[in-house]
Amino acid sequence: MTYTCLVVDDEKELAIATCEYFNMFGVSAAYVTNKQDCLKFLKEHEVKLILLDINLQEDSGFLLCKEIREFSDIPIFFISARQSDDDILMALNIGGDDYIKKPYALSVLLAKVKVVLKRLEDTKERLPMQSGRIRVDVKARKVYVEDMEIELKNKEFKLFLYLFQHPNIVITKDELFANVWGDAFFSDGTLNVHIRKLREKIEKDPNNPEIIKTIWGTGYRMEL
Asked: Which residues carry this modification: 4-aspartylphosphate (predicted)?
């Protein structure tokens, strides 16, 4: 499952309120209240941005940030009632991207998050992506297999791109419906037809696919 934002804050009511506000404006958000749950969440889900409190019960947001930076460059916004310049400098020096003081206005926080997310998307769209024999130019909406351009219709491209951007993990049918079609209630038949058309265009042998694998009863995995 993919989330836009993960709130890591031991003030549970504030974390819930932040998530509810973000979700109301189309920014999918979830929350955890401690370091262990945060690391577990990041292993199990894709997250585009983290809102991280400094004080996490017996743990430190500073230490958690350092640990995350060992395996990810995901944007991290510190959110804290601590006001000192030393705390702000520490947060930024260890890899934080911004420091937002509590109490914060949810509207302002959401605006800051959207600016960073838009910048990330713009950067991603400008950069061609390649894995093995497949290259994707997102800006031009083109896919190349062994340097040969493959013609994809709009939904085929969106489906291919979502799988390509989440390689080597199982993507459930519900996740594909929600992120490609924007609706969790499309029929399996719709998805199956689009998967078959993709295989016919990118696989050497569509009947024995090596790239888009079916995980029976669950979804699909793109192996790159």
From this structure: 53
Q: What are the start and end residues of each CATH 1.10.10.10 domain in the chain?
A: 130-222
Q: Over its length of 224 residues, how does the chain's per-residue pLDDT go in tens digits?
A: 788 999 999 999 999 999 999 999 999 999 999 999 999 999 999 899 999 999 988 889 999 999 998 888 889 999 999 888 899 999 998 989 889 999 889 999 999 999 888 887 766 655 557 888 898 887 778 899 988 999 998 889 989 998 998 888 999 988 888 778 775 555 788 899 999 999 999 999 999 999 999 999 899 999 98
- What is the b/e burial string over 32-50, where b = at least 16 CB atoms within 10 angstroms of the residue's CB? bbbbeebbebbeeeebbbb
Yes or no: domain 2-126 corresponds to CATH 3.40.190.10: no
Q: CA-CA distance, 54 to 79, in Å (whole number)?
A: 7
Residue 182 one-letter amino acid: G
Gap between the Cα atoms of 220 and 199, Å rounded:
12
Residue 170 contacts residue 220 (beta carbons within 8 Å): yes
Distance (Å, whole) CA 124 – CA 97? 18
Could you tell me which CATH number the domain at 130-222 has? 1.10.10.10
Start-end ranges of CATH 3.40.50.2300 in the chain?
2-126
The predicted model scores a pTM of 0.57
Residue 23 has phi, psi (to 5 degrees) of -60, -35
Rounded Cα distance between 75 and 128, Å, is 21
CB of 192 closer than 8 Å to CB of 136: no
